[in-house]
Design brief:
This protein has 451 residues and is α/β, with parallel strands linked by helices. The chain contains twelve helices and 21 strands. The structure holds thymidine-5'-diphosphate and magnesium ion (MG).
Amino acid sequence: MAKTKSAFFCRSCGFESSKWIGKCPGCEEWNTFAEEIKATNSVNAWKKSTRKLVSATLIHEISPEGFEKKPISDSELNLVLGGGLVPGAVVLLGGEPGIGKSTLLLQMALQMNSDVLYVSGEESESQIKLRAERIGIQNSQCRVLTETMLENILDIVAKEPPEILIVDSIQTLYSDVLEASPGSISQIRECTGKLLQFAKETNTPVFLIGHITKDGAIAGPKLLEHMVDTVLQFEGDRHHVYRILRTLKNRFGSTQEMGIYEMQGSGLVPVKNPSEIWLAQRDEPLSGIGIGCVLEGIRPLLLEVQALVSSAVYGMPQRSATGFDLRRLNMLLAVLEKRCGFRLGQSDVFVNLAGGLRLEDPALDLPLMTAIMSSYQGFAIPQGFVFSGEVGLSGEVRAVQRIEQRITEAEKLGFTDMIVSKYNKIPEDPNRKLKIHAFGKVDEVFGWLFG
Ligand code: TYD
Ligand code: MG
């Protein structure tokens, strides 16, 4: 195949060079050069001849056809995708090595009742077969192709079009028209572009698996995330069995949803009652532990927040947060000092969300602060207590969203007392067994709890 002309361009200032250079002579930036295909004159001439008159359409004349979502049998994936697969949608799934990306998509392919083509550039056919046997093969129409050259893949999908295409992974593909090595920025962009074109032209949903870099971003240009319709992230601690699937971007649904799986010997199993996992079973209450009720998407979740406050013996006090924003922790500690009069300036403070979760719901503020106070005072919070409230800079407990849903979940799991903000409007319910305690300020909560 004839090579198309390509050149290297600086991504920062556009400087052109015939070979790769580390430092741009134009803008003096480092590592900004990427290979691009240069359009030849014949290509330009062809483009001109195919130009046609275009016109804009009135919005009410556009029919929403082709956007019906096709539900998939994997309940969590379905939820995260916003209710099903959209024809022609391109979904990028990112995650750390070994987290279970290939397992998740192969499992989806095997559970579906359609012609799915699973293209792998990472594993051999027999490796995939072995994995499929662990998961259990149900879909006899699932095809496997081990190939890394984009043009060959496109030939096959043109000859025998699949209903769904899965590519594992985008970083292993390469296009023959570029000289850059697989996984380089220009190869990733070129291959994604071509697969995107295939998806849109044939209305075939395409799943791409993407590697992530050391700091957690999807490897390759940020542009990759802009090009695709949906970006999913698969995360969790490799040493824990639970895996969380999140939506970072979704053109066809909400990005609030979260799917939870358990990695078992026979693949990934959706977790039906997530709250039950994160509440450790113990016989007696311990200090430094608070139970919070948070909302992930539409799902209420109860989880354990752990805190440890100890005097800093090595000079600079340490603050560390696992699963929680460190800046928010510092803010909450400042509120404790300034508004409640507790001197934590000379103490180390560690907080941890159970089960390797990472959450951002502001309703975690109150359980976290009470866990910190509980550790500081050495006083355990009674069992059966659950907290849900945001804390403001002046120490006020603020209302949280969808309080009724949180109350229902806490009651379902057998909690007896729930501590919330007095600004949350909670309708009276004579059948409710859960006692609601509403407060306006955090120091009132502490006064009531610790006396
Ligand atoms: P894999 O899907 O290969 O991860 P990725 O594609 O993200 O790199 O899955 C890796 C891990 O999952 C592997 O260490 C083994 C484990 N696993 C199970 O525990 N049970 C199973 O049924 C399968 C297929 C994998
Ligand atoms: Mg893999």
